């Protein structure tokens, strides 16, 4: 039976599932309900509409506008505070470490913080599963597991089970009477709930014929889902991170300013609709896009020319100097708030015939960087991105710029903020005794271990004291990093054998501070991979291995009580720990003393 209203105030009927049209069958009776007159009629079942998502190949991006569904705020509000379920390291940073178990010798051990420890373990399980899945999907298809659990639906169900266990642990903790971290665990529980809802939504789409886009990890798929993209949308977003995809979608409004003729011309030149939007918004057009093709640089929001071109340049280009392999120029740009003092480094095109080496550095060759197509721009941009993710302001802001396009020809280059101060090789020894200088140099060293920068020497990082009296350390020349063959973060250290004598780095530092430890522990494989988009899968895998090595080093320092507070860097005993073989601080302080004849 069905009930329809005949009189009285409007009744608001909830929509449950798929509903058919209002019943028009014969009336079986009338009466009153909630102060309103109603009649009861025979129920006529309706057939739900067929799902719009079917098992088919999705229409490519040039042929359709990608539109995200509006995310349900209730499903994503927790994800806005943290990207999915936060890491156990992040939770410990907010709530503190669990209490250590108490040993009573032969009488046994009294377990402490069992609920909190179980919660931390379940959070680790979630991230380990996603990390393992990302590793599996980064391998060529014929190397992947043939197990049923690695089907698309199987992977989702495994994640669902892992989240269920985490939710059970959170619920159990919240029911405890004496637990002291309920506020923090309650927030984690909301994050888990949001993830569970997203998994349910994805499984529902798959039941209606939706499929995973090829080679996407579950982490990436969940990131897209949090932003409101459906599985169908994701197929059209190949090569883009979720944030980049959102950028593309938001700028689809620019289509209204692109005439059919313009779109046709871009398509004829080999550019997708998304690339056309970025090229048009940038102002470099098809001609600039062809320079990207020539340089084999992907056209994405993080690589497109935005601020540095002929229209914003306010000075000539003055030759600043030549390194071992590159010439760089000093140049000023209008930043909208005054002149932006920068360095411009022209990019050399790759040799696709593989006869002439473009990158000739020893470190690049030793670490597995393709000498014929070294992708220097992507390595510099990626290094800047990793530094920002860690919160280490120790490399120049880096973007891709262009010059000469208006006069024909044109050239792409790397534009970097100019490093203040003097090279470490020319710095007064007294500066190395300052705590803030030591701290910033160690940040640079940790970054180098993570990105595999094995060419760091005293002439390619600068030290300055700003107008506020604070230390500023800036590492330049980040071309020879992120090679595929360097898996050990200590691999950048200079040795004496033919295999390592060309490296300029040092072993991992003997001391770090609590802030550094927190940032390294908090960086996930997914975080790192997002910073390295555009690099080869094997280069990203090597970086993930180095991240593991860094985290092991942090744990080792914790056991040795060598993680200090940020305000302790200036203490004498801290300075005594830094030596030539284990740090840039020790190496360059010793050389500064030798240079000024203070030691022999």
From TrEMBL:
Residues 1-30 have a biased composition (Polar residues). This is PI3K/PI4K catalytic domain-containing protein. Residues 1-71, 77-96 are annotated as: Disordered. It comes from the Bacteria. It comes from Prosthecodimorpha staleyi.
């Amino acid at each position: 039976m069905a009930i329809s209203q005949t009189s009285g105030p409007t009744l608001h009927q909830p929509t449950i599932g798929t509903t058919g049209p209002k019943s028009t069958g014969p009336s079986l009776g009338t009466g009153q309900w909630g102060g309103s007159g109603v009649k009861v009629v025979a129920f006529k079942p309706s057939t739900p509409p067929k799902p719009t998502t079917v098992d088919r190949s999705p229409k490519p991006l040039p042929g359709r506008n990608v539109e995200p569904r509006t995310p349900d705020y209730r499903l994503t509000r927790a994800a806005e505070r943290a990207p999915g379920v936060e890491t156990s390291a992040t939770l410990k940073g907010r709530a503190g470490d669990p209490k250590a178990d108490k040993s009573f010798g032969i009488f046994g051990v009294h377990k402490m913080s069992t609920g909190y420890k179980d919660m931390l373990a379940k959070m680790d399980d979630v991230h380990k599963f996603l990390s393992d899945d990302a590793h599996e999907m980064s391998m060529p298809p014929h190397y992947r597991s043939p197990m049923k659990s690695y089907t698309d639906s199987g992977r989702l169900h495994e994640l669902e089970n892992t989240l269920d266990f985490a939710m059970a642990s959170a619920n159990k903790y919240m029911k405890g009477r004496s637990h002291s971290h309920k506020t923090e665990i309650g927030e984690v529980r909301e994050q888990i709930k949001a993830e569970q809802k997203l998994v349910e939504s994805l499984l529902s789409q798959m039941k209606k014929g939706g499929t995973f886009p090829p080679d996407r990890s579950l982490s990436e798929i969940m990131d897209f889902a949090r932003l409101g993209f459906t599985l169908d949308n994701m197929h059209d977003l190949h090569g883009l991170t979720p944030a980049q995809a959102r950028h593309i979608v938001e700028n689809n409004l620019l289509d209204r300013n692109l005439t059919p003729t313009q779109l046709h011309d871009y398509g004829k030149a080999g550019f997708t609709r998304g690339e056309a939007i970025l090229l048009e918004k940038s102002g470099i057009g098809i001609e600039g896009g062809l320079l990207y093709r020539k340089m084999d640089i992907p056209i994405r929001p993080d690589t497109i020319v935005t601020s540095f071109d002929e229209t914003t340049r306010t000075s000539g280009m003055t030759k600043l100097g030549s390194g071992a392999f590159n010439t760089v120029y000093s140049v000023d740009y209008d930043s909208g708030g005054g002149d932006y003092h920068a360095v411009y480094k022209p990019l050399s095109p790759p040799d696709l015939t593989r006869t002439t080496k473009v990158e000739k550095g020893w470190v690049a060759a030793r670490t597995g960087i393709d000498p014929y197509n070294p992708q220097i721009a992507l390595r510099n941009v990626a290094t800047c991105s990793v530094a920002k993710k860690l919160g280490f302001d120790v490399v120049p802001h880096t973007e891709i710029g262009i010059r000469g396009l208006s006069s024909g020809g044109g050239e792409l280059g790397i534009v970097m903020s100019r490093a203040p101060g003097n090279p470490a090789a020319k710095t007064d020894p007294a500066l190395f005794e300052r705590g803030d200088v030591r701290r910033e140099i160690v940040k640079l060293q940790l970054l180098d271990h993570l990105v595999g920068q094995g060419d760091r020497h005293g002439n390619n990082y600068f030290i300055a004291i700003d107008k506020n009296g604070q230390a500023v350390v800036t590492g330049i020349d980040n071309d020879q990093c992120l090679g595929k063959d360097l898996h050990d973060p200590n691999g950048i250290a200079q040795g004496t054998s033919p295999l390592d004598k060309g490296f300029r780095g040092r072993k991992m530092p003997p001391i770090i501070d609590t802030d550094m430890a927190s940032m390294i522990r908090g960086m996930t494989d997914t975080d790192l991979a997002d910073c390295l988009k555009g690099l080869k899968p094997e280069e990203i895998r090597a970086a993930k291995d180095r991240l593991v090595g860094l985290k092991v080093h942090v744990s080792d320092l914790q056991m040795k009580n060598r993680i200090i507070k940020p305000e302790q860097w200036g203490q004498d005993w801290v300075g005594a720990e830094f030596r030539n073989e284990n740090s840039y601080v020790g190496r360059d302080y010793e050389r500064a003393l030798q240079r000024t004849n203070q030691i022999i």
